[in-house]
Design brief:
- It is built from ten helices and no strands.
- Helix 2 crosses helix 4.
- The longest helix has 27 residues.
- The relative contact order is 0.14.
- The C terminus is likely disordered.
Length: 172
Protein backbone atom coordinates (compact mmCIF):
# COMPACT_ATOMS: atom_id res chain seq x y z
CA UNK A 1 0.00 0.00 0.00
CA UNK A 2 1.31 3.46 -0.91
CA UNK A 3 1.31 6.16 1.76
CA UNK A 4 -1.09 8.99 1.14
CA UNK A 5 0.11 12.38 -0.04
CA UNK A 6 -0.05 14.04 3.40
CA UNK A 7 1.93 11.20 5.02
CA UNK A 8 4.63 11.51 2.35
CA UNK A 9 4.78 15.27 2.89
CA UNK A 10 4.89 14.77 6.67
CA UNK A 11 7.86 12.44 6.23
CA UNK A 12 9.58 15.11 4.11
CA UNK A 13 8.90 17.70 6.82
CA UNK A 14 10.44 15.36 9.37
CA UNK A 15 13.72 15.48 7.42
CA UNK A 16 13.71 19.05 6.08
CA UNK A 17 16.02 21.69 7.56
CA UNK A 18 14.19 23.30 10.46
CA UNK A 19 14.88 26.84 9.29
CA UNK A 20 13.09 26.03 6.03
CA UNK A 21 10.07 24.66 7.91
CA UNK A 22 9.89 27.76 10.09
CA UNK A 23 10.21 30.03 7.05
CA UNK A 24 7.32 28.13 5.46
CA UNK A 25 5.21 28.67 8.58
CA UNK A 26 6.07 32.36 8.66
CA UNK A 27 5.02 32.72 5.02
CA UNK A 28 1.67 31.11 5.95
CA UNK A 29 1.24 33.79 8.61
CA UNK A 30 1.76 36.74 6.22
CA UNK A 31 -1.90 37.77 6.03
CA UNK A 32 -2.77 37.44 9.75
CA UNK A 33 0.43 39.28 10.69
CA UNK A 34 -0.26 42.01 8.14
CA UNK A 35 -3.61 42.46 9.86
CA UNK A 36 -1.76 43.51 13.02
CA UNK A 37 0.78 45.68 11.20
CA UNK A 38 3.64 43.25 10.64
CA UNK A 39 4.71 42.83 7.03
CA UNK A 40 6.90 39.85 6.19
CA UNK A 41 8.42 39.14 2.79
CA UNK A 42 9.71 35.72 1.79
CA UNK A 43 13.25 36.99 2.42
CA UNK A 44 12.19 38.25 5.87
CA UNK A 45 10.66 34.85 6.66
CA UNK A 46 13.90 33.11 5.74
CA UNK A 47 16.02 35.53 7.80
CA UNK A 48 13.72 35.36 10.83
CA UNK A 49 13.63 31.56 10.69
CA UNK A 50 17.41 31.43 10.50
CA UNK A 51 17.66 33.74 13.53
CA UNK A 52 15.28 31.49 15.48
CA UNK A 53 17.22 28.32 14.70
CA UNK A 54 20.60 29.90 15.40
CA UNK A 55 19.40 31.71 18.51
CA UNK A 56 20.64 35.04 17.20
CA UNK A 57 19.02 38.38 17.81
CA UNK A 58 16.88 40.12 15.24
CA UNK A 59 15.16 43.38 16.15
CA UNK A 60 11.92 42.12 14.57
CA UNK A 61 11.56 39.06 16.80
CA UNK A 62 9.96 40.72 19.88
CA UNK A 63 7.15 42.27 17.79
CA UNK A 64 6.68 38.98 15.96
CA UNK A 65 6.45 37.11 19.27
CA UNK A 66 3.91 39.60 20.64
CA UNK A 67 1.72 39.44 17.52
CA UNK A 68 1.81 35.65 17.31
CA UNK A 69 0.97 35.35 21.00
CA UNK A 70 -2.08 37.54 20.55
CA UNK A 71 -3.26 35.73 17.42
CA UNK A 72 -2.78 32.26 18.90
CA UNK A 73 -4.62 33.25 22.07
CA UNK A 74 -7.42 34.62 19.93
CA UNK A 75 -7.71 31.19 18.26
CA UNK A 76 -7.80 29.48 21.66
CA UNK A 77 -10.65 31.85 22.55
CA UNK A 78 -12.50 30.84 19.37
CA UNK A 79 -12.32 27.16 20.34
CA UNK A 80 -13.35 27.93 23.91
CA UNK A 81 -16.62 29.43 22.63
CA UNK A 82 -17.47 25.85 21.62
CA UNK A 83 -16.31 24.47 24.98
CA UNK A 84 -13.10 23.08 23.49
CA UNK A 85 -9.45 23.23 24.37
CA UNK A 86 -7.00 22.78 21.52
CA UNK A 87 -6.37 19.13 22.48
CA UNK A 88 -10.12 18.50 22.72
CA UNK A 89 -10.68 20.12 19.34
CA UNK A 90 -8.12 17.86 17.66
CA UNK A 91 -10.09 14.85 18.85
CA UNK A 92 -13.59 16.21 18.22
CA UNK A 93 -15.45 15.39 15.05
CA UNK A 94 -17.05 18.51 13.62
CA UNK A 95 -20.38 16.68 13.43
CA UNK A 96 -20.32 16.26 17.21
CA UNK A 97 -20.46 20.01 17.79
CA UNK A 98 -23.74 21.79 18.26
CA UNK A 99 -24.67 25.10 16.73
CA UNK A 100 -25.35 24.10 13.16
CA UNK A 101 -28.57 23.21 11.41
CA UNK A 102 -27.88 23.56 7.72
CA UNK A 103 -25.06 22.43 5.49
CA UNK A 104 -23.92 26.05 5.24
CA UNK A 105 -23.80 26.28 9.06
CA UNK A 106 -21.85 23.02 9.22
CA UNK A 107 -19.30 24.22 6.65
CA UNK A 108 -18.90 27.59 8.38
CA UNK A 109 -18.30 25.86 11.73
CA UNK A 110 -15.83 23.45 10.13
CA UNK A 111 -13.90 26.39 8.67
CA UNK A 112 -13.82 28.22 11.99
CA UNK A 113 -12.63 25.11 13.86
CA UNK A 114 -9.98 24.13 11.32
CA UNK A 115 -8.64 27.69 11.03
CA UNK A 116 -8.32 27.97 14.81
CA UNK A 117 -6.56 24.59 15.00
CA UNK A 118 -4.18 25.54 12.20
CA UNK A 119 -3.32 28.90 13.73
CA UNK A 120 -2.73 27.32 17.12
CA UNK A 121 -0.54 24.52 15.75
CA UNK A 122 1.60 26.65 13.44
CA UNK A 123 1.64 29.68 15.72
CA UNK A 124 2.66 27.57 18.72
CA UNK A 125 5.48 26.03 16.69
CA UNK A 126 6.76 29.51 15.84
CA UNK A 127 6.37 30.71 19.43
CA UNK A 128 8.33 27.76 20.82
CA UNK A 129 10.98 28.50 18.19
CA UNK A 130 10.98 32.06 19.51
CA UNK A 131 11.71 30.68 22.97
CA UNK A 132 8.25 30.68 24.54
CA UNK A 133 7.81 27.18 25.96
CA UNK A 134 4.36 28.14 27.30
CA UNK A 135 3.05 27.11 23.87
CA UNK A 136 4.73 23.69 23.90
CA UNK A 137 1.62 21.88 25.28
CA UNK A 138 -0.20 22.49 21.99
CA UNK A 139 2.67 20.87 20.12
CA UNK A 140 2.72 17.98 22.57
CA UNK A 141 -1.02 17.46 21.97
CA UNK A 142 -0.37 17.24 18.23
CA UNK A 143 2.37 14.65 18.64
CA UNK A 144 0.56 12.59 21.29
CA UNK A 145 -2.57 12.09 19.21
CA UNK A 146 -0.48 9.72 17.07
CA UNK A 147 -1.52 10.99 13.64
CA UNK A 148 1.21 11.37 11.04
CA UNK A 149 0.36 14.67 9.36
CA UNK A 150 2.13 17.92 8.56
CA UNK A 151 1.22 19.65 11.81
CA UNK A 152 2.44 16.79 13.99
CA UNK A 153 5.67 16.42 11.96
CA UNK A 154 6.48 20.11 12.46
CA UNK A 155 5.45 19.94 16.13
CA UNK A 156 7.77 17.01 16.76
CA UNK A 157 10.67 18.74 15.04
CA UNK A 158 10.18 21.93 17.04
CA UNK A 159 9.83 20.07 20.36
CA UNK A 160 12.99 18.04 19.73
CA UNK A 161 15.18 20.98 18.72
CA UNK A 162 17.58 22.27 21.42
CA UNK A 163 16.37 25.88 21.48
CA UNK A 164 18.85 28.55 22.52
CA UNK A 165 16.33 30.92 24.08
CA UNK A 166 14.18 30.78 27.20
CA UNK A 167 10.74 32.23 27.62
CA UNK A 168 10.49 36.00 27.11
CA UNK A 169 10.38 36.55 30.87
CA UNK A 170 13.71 34.73 31.18
CA UNK A 171 15.47 36.61 28.40
CA UNK A 172 13.92 40.08 28.41
Amino acid sequence: MFPDRESRRAEQYARAPLNELLALLLRQWKRPLAGVGITITDADAAALAQAMVRGTDDARLPALREALTSLVRESHDVLSTYGLTFADSLNTNIGDLSGWETTADFLALAEIKSNAELRISTGSALLVALGDRAFAPALTALVERGVLDLDSAVAKRVLEYPWHRGTPSQTD
